[in-house]
Predict the 3D structure of the following.
Amino acid sequence: MSRSPDCTSLSMLSMFIIVNVRTSRSQTLSSVYHISTLKVISKVDCWPIRDIIASNPSTRKSLLRNRSASMATHQIERKPEWLKIKLTTGDNYKELKNMMRGKTLHTVCEEAKCPNIHECWAARTATFMILGDICTRACRFCAVNTGMPTELDLQEPERVAEASEQMGLRHVVVTSVARDDLKDGGASVFAATIRAIRGRLPLAGVEVLIPDFQGDEEALRTVLEAKPDILNHNVETVERLSDKVRAKAKYRRSLELLERSKRIAPSIPTKSSIMLGVGETWDEILQTMDDLRAVDCSIMTIGQYLQPSLKHLPVSKYYTPEQFAELKQEGLKRGFSHVESGPLVRSSYHAHEQVQSAKQS
């Protein structure tokens, strides 16, 4: 009669449980189980987990206790009431979604899982994402797909302009994935998109949210020569956390890009954004404002970081609407022409209002 195995240890590894089983005096075998289903992922012994649990009541208690604790730890924290949004999927939203699919276009609203997508699309505003939907970087906060892009669509600028015309936009925002695989980082496609929009909508404002082009000044110059109304580049977070939060991008390089932009094209307002809730301190937020003003950045947006999935950075803190309102006043005191600050604010949120503030300053 065979005896039950002796469960010698129980340990946790992320979402898995490792059970070590002594089969003889000289041999211990292991099985790895997924905690939510107790399904065997890697089985090198001949006993199912129920036999292991049955052989030792204390093992069962430990297993269930660790399973519950681990599942709680790995769940995305419940959001506070002020982050709940009303979903609006009216005719404008549906029409815009169909238009984007019909023209094989991407929007950062969808790819980055923006919480304002229903509000903005219902109001017929959107942020176009050019250069495909695969990013060559893997920032720990971002929901956009990462990998190695396989192609470059040179007809995309004209389709963006055509869609903007059909939507009757008065302010068009264009951003992109990072394309470190391209010599100019995609700057020429940004420029072509700006010119295509100008050709169809000469009175519309055009704002570009660009990557850092790996510090290439000529790439930045290429974009600025197309004369966007606003040049936007996000520092994303405070300096201390930049390497942790962003992939390849550098805080000081981002500030240098904004400074170069004002030197090359002084009349074009610059803009930047940070997200809160990744471990920054209040003083670091204020220092970031000071750093941006030191390079003559005139528009700033501040929003709450929301964890897109369990593989992304966890939220360290939820800031209240009152704290965001206080930060807006801090920014205005420092001389920003416009500060958009709120839990659901994203870089292009209410962008048409920001360009008017910049022109009046």
Observations:
- Residues 160 and 178 are 18 Å apart (CA to CA).
- The two ends are 88 Å apart (CA to CA).
- Confidence is low (pLDDT under 50) at residues 1-19, 23-50, 67-74.
- The chain has 13 helices and twelve strands.
